[in-house]
Every structure is written in C-alpha cells, then in structure tokens.
Amino acid sequence: MNEPLRIIRDNLGAYLVVNLAMYGISIAGVVTALILPELNAAQLASMQEDGTTDLVLAVIGNVWLFALVILGVNTLTVGALAIVLPSLVVPFAGIAVFAYRAFDIGLTLAPADRTGWVILIPHSVTYVIEFQAYILLVLGAYLLGRSWLRPGSVGAPNRRAGYVSGLRQIGWLSLPALVLFVIGAVYEAFTLRYLVPVLIQAMA
C-alpha cells in the first residue's frame, strides 16, 4: 500500500479539497431533506419502485449475502459506473456524476423519524468508511483528468502518455478503495442485521 499512500501524500491538497467538497455536498443533501422531508420520502418511494427495498428484505436474513450485495452496489454501481468509467471517457466526468450521487445519498440518509435517527447512529460509521472509498476514486478521477489534459504535470511527453499515467494512479488508488468497500459492506450488513434491531427495541 506504499504507492497509494505516496499518491495521496503527493496530492494532499487535492485529497483534502475532495473530502471537503464531497462530504459537504452529501451533508447538504441531509440538511435539504430535513428541511424538505418530502424529498426523503420521494427517495424512499423510488427505492421501493426500483426494487431496492425488496432486494434488501430478501437478502438481509443472510448477513454474508447481504454484505456481498452491498459490496456489489458500492463497487460496481457507484465506484465503477458512476466514478471510474465516465472519467475514462471524459476528463473529470466521474467527479460531477459522484457529486450528484453524494447529494442523492444525503437525501436518502436524512432521518425522517425516531427510527431513522437510531439507524443513523451505527450507519454514520458506514457513511464515513464508504465515502472514503468513493473519495479515493474521485481523487483518482481528478488525477487522471489532470494528467490527461496536462501531461506535463506528471512528466509525460504527450496526452496519451499522460492518460496512461493517470490510469496507473487511479488503479493504485482503487486498491485501498476496495479494502474500504469490503470493510464498509461487512460492517453495514452486520449492524443493520443485528445491531439496529436491538437499538430500535431498546429505544421503543
């Protein structure tokens, strides 16, 4: 993991800005939903319509299968399709896509009632872990776009070489991101399956 740490250290300013921006956008989504609860209700209704809620209910009884589903959604649907893939085609595109997703996540996470606040207690840890994984990929998307458009910033002679250098950096950052995705998925599955019901019952 020395290379990912080196990349973060060499681009610490960008890493901190990405953290501030993405957490800020997501928290803005939470605040917006608290002010306008109908937005949170619309998010939950959308999850029911697209089958997300039914999928969760179908697999939550098997905690390892539940963790695998969470991991698949986080790595493929958000990480690969929303951040990495758009950035491979259009410079910085994944940053814009995830900024929208971050606000959307905030709308969904906003607690609508007492139960929502209880769930948020353990889920806030999940939020921090998984967002750090997303942020590493967003940082990679930024570095890819920068080296692609300004190859001289990475000592590359042309944009093609800069693109290859950017791919290498996003590839390295994907490794710790994957580790965080795994940790986040297991933690989320176990807390939702075992801890949250106990907390809800204790506060009933």
UniProtKB/TrEMBL annotation:
Q: Where are the transmembrane segments?
A: 12-35, 55-73, 80-103, 131-149, 170-190
Q: What keyword terms does UniProt attach to this protein? A: Membrane, Transmembrane, Transmembrane helix
Q: What is this protein called?
A: Stage II sporulation protein M
Q: Which organism is it from?
A: Pseudonocardia abyssalis
